[in-house]
């Protein structure tokens, strides 16, 4: 999994207006993916009630998407390099639209989980092509403006997802309950597919490497063996096979390492470039990305369950409550990259971990003090503090992790960063059954539900705070002064797998 470059012979000339249509199309696709990640959480209680989904199925509706997305990201990027980014983008957005329809018309929770897995897999085909298409379409002197627009779209997606999900669920259009949160993708996807066929120029990597399907299979199998027992274990009273399955996952990951080492020696095209882990800052950064994904996976799901099940709030009220958090993330992210990191370096990321942990502790205190009577405005302070801390981390973290990575492995490294973050997110969602549902009793009266969810929320936040403490310690291995060299390494270079819009901005 080494860095490759797009074919520049297909690049459109600066005066060609078609490239701006192409930009609008791939931005719409990236926006659709970002919204779809965040829009589902706010509708989870409505899905649970309407579809009569179990707690483990609720977790898989979110974790399944993250798992399929993570498992397919690197392969999706590699397929685009080999067969053409335009072609894979169209396959991805067509499949994503179809999967969205299947989600919207799901007849039962099992169908919804399966459709979400398909949706995540199709997103893994679509998303890696977005930045590659931008690089292959725009000349170097225009990319600054383009990435500025892209960052704005990403920020808008992060803010609008929960609100859009809340509104669509609250309105209950045509009596469809939660289903419009998926069906809204259909007109956007169909239009983007049709326009994409006309306006996006094809590009390929001149020396694309082979697929490592065995590596993908081992990664997916290992994660399934770890996550499935975690999500089902509590409901099944932690059977022996579950413990054996989780232990077996470690064996599968060991086999993955051995296979990747042999494949690198044989043909130089492994899924994971193991030599990268000899770089101390990269190894620590991968750990930070993974653990940070775990923290976010836990927090966002239990936060939604706490507000809607525990406090009995409507989806709209819950969605509006999260607006200060989103705004704080966007504001702090912009400041960290432009002003703080160039001056203070690694200390900004460490401060972000401490600030976010402070917000979590403040939230625990307020949830305990006000109990079921807590108001949205009382949550604003901890959410703003948490959002500010998260913003200080997410924007500069990728550059910090890549600072000491050899330039020829930049694509491999950034693809791996994006993948492990999604894997961490899936693992965090799986752990919700332990740190949140494990604290809630199996048989609760109506009067006991609220206090039980409030208590479980506080318990889960202690775990999040502990994880942020671990992140702070791991960050000490990052370079003191991260060098932002990957994206601007050369005018027409693009790492083959540095294509996850969720990390752009």
TrEMBL record:
Transmembrane segments: 20-44, 56-76, 88-107, 113-134, 146-168, 180-196, 208-228, 240-260, 281-306, 318-336, 348-365, 377-402, 423-440, 460-478
Domain of life: Bacteria
Subcellular location: Cell membrane
Protein name: Transmembrane efflux protein
Domain annotation Major facilitator superfamily (MFS) profile: ranges: 22-484
Membrane-topology annotation of the record: Multi-pass membrane protein
Organism whose genome encodes this protein: Streptomyces collinus (strain DSM 40733 / Tue 365)
Any one annotated GO CC term: plasma membrane
GO function term, MF aspect, one: transmembrane transporter activity
GO biological-process terms attached to the record: response to antibiotic
Keywords linked to the UniProt accession: Antibiotic resistance, Cell membrane, Membrane, Transmembrane, Transmembrane helix, Transport
CDD domains linked to this entry: MFS_MMR_MDR_like (cd17321)
PROSITE patterns: MFS
Annotated InterPro entries: EmrB-like (IPR004638), MFS (IPR011701), MFS_dom (IPR020846), MFS_trans_sf (IPR036259)
SUPFAM superfamilies named in the record: MFS general substrate transporter
Entry keyword annotation includes Ubl conjugation: no
